[in-house]
Amino acid sequence: MRITTGVPGFDALVDGGIPKDRLYVISGPPGSGKTTFCAQFVTKGAIEGETTLFLTLHETQEELVSDLGNYEFGFDQAVNSGHVKVLNAFENEAKRLLSPSARNSSEFPKNVDNLANQLVAFVESKGVDRLVIDSAMLLEYYFSDDLDALIKFLTKLKRADATVLLISEMTDPTSYTDGHYLAHGVIFMHNYLESGGMTRGVQIIKMRGTKIDCDIRKIEFTDRGLRVDPNEKIQT
């Protein structure tokens, strides 16, 4: 089964939509549209009646709503209606929800296995259909004493009955990480300066189980969020 991403034009690059209940990594440099892409993804799910969760490790709900509420695709309305749940992993509410048996909020999972297990359990118990995690860099920082932390985390997360987007900071699309190899799909957001200004594009590096367009296709920020032009190939 395929699901729509909520990003106009993108689904044409993946044969009509991304396969459901799989793990995808959204990579790219700062300002390339990763968070906006993911916000459109969870908002689209909410509009279609799905349970969606945006788990952030460095921003609050208020900050995300303020930043993304300027777009017209409805992220702020979806959050305010309760159809999109935003959790900051290090705030007390997230600690209580992810660690329901904890006696107090300080008992947050202290290792990657506990966090992954409790997150998967939360996703399945709450019937979460779409999950965004922002971001891999902060996961690596949080579990810096465990060299294989991200591998363990993603391996467990792949078993969750949800479609997961993991944001990953990356500037070189040829410098692959363990996360890129483990994920079912990798999407890279490009932005670079040319003589005429900033050029933005999206490229599907891999996606298992579907036909894909691997060329870099033009994207732009509009009042309604990101929009992909599936017919315009960017020459590099």
Helix content: 25-40%
The assigned structural class equals alpha/beta
Order of helices and strands: EEEHEHHEHHEHHEHEEEE
- Bin the strand percentage: 25-35%
The count of DSSP E runs of length 2 or more, i.e. the number of strands, is 11
Looking at the structure, what is the overall shape? Answer: globular
Radius of gyration: 17 Å
Main pleated-sheet profile? 9 strands, mixed
Instruction: Please state the average pLDDT score.
Output: 86
- N/C terminus separation: 34 Å
Low-confidence stretches: none
Summarize the entry for a quick read:
This protein has about 240 residues and is α/β, with parallel strands linked by helices. The chain has 8 helices and 11 strands. It has a 9-stranded mixed β-sheet.
Characterization of this structure:
It is a single chain. The chain has 236 residues and is of the alpha/beta class. It contains 8 helices and 11 strands.
Features:
two-stranded antiparallel sheet; alpha/beta; 9-stranded mixed β-sheet; 8 helices; 30% helix; 236 residues; single chain
Topology summary:
Blueprint: E1 2-3, E2 18-19, E3 23-28, H1 34-47, E4 52-56, H2 61-68, H3 75-81, E5 84-88, H4 92-98, H5 112-125, E6 130-134, H6 136-142, H7 149-157, E7 163-169, H8 178-182, E8 185-194, E9 197-207, E10 217-222, E11 225-233
Helix pairs in contact: 5-7
